[in-house]
Amino acid sequence: MVLCIHTDADEPTDSNAFSYKINPAFTAINNIIDGRLCKNLVAIVPVHMTEAWMLADSELLKAEIGTNKSDNELGLIRSPEEYNNPKEIIEIAIRLARHGLPKRRRGDFGISRIYSPIGQKVKLNKLEGLPSYRKFKAAIRAAYRRMNYLI
């Protein structure tokens, strides 16, 4: 069993998130002696925000928001972890994608509608381009090695 602890970095690097959130959480969990909590710990720390991972597959994002506009037309011009506020970038892309649709078709479509579908459909090879995902993947592999699930 592996216990994953998640926090967003909210910065261009994950160093403060590890120093002030992840490492203290790991210490607290490791200091619990009753044995009911998993001690095989792995951090998930997307740089800036989890929404950066949603930007890893722009084709999937565009399919979920229902547009065939280009990445450039939607303002998706940088690497996902380069955006300070990827959530805002997605919200802007949604507005741009739905602009021009009849009002009744535009509806009340927001980012909340696409978290689950993108989370379920994103291909892991798309996430491989993100350093924070690769760091998480390496930590998971190390945890599985400790459990003798991987060599």
Task: Please tell me about this protein's structure.
The chain has 2 domains: 3-47 and 130-146, no CATH class; 51-127, no CATH class. Helices cover 48% and strands 5% of the residues. The protein contains 8 helices and 2 strands; from the N terminus they run βαβααααααα. It has a two-stranded parallel sheet. The two termini are 17 Å apart. The mean pLDDT is 93.
Structural class based on helices, strands and sheet pairing? mainly alpha
Number of strands: 2
Count of domains: 2
Number of helices: 8
Strand order of the largest sheet: 1-2
Please write the string of helix (H) and strand (E) elements: EHEHHHHHHH
Euclidean distance between termini CA atoms = 17 Å
Helix content: 40-55%
Radius of gyration (CA) equals 18 Å
Overall morphology: elongated
Low-pLDDT parts are none
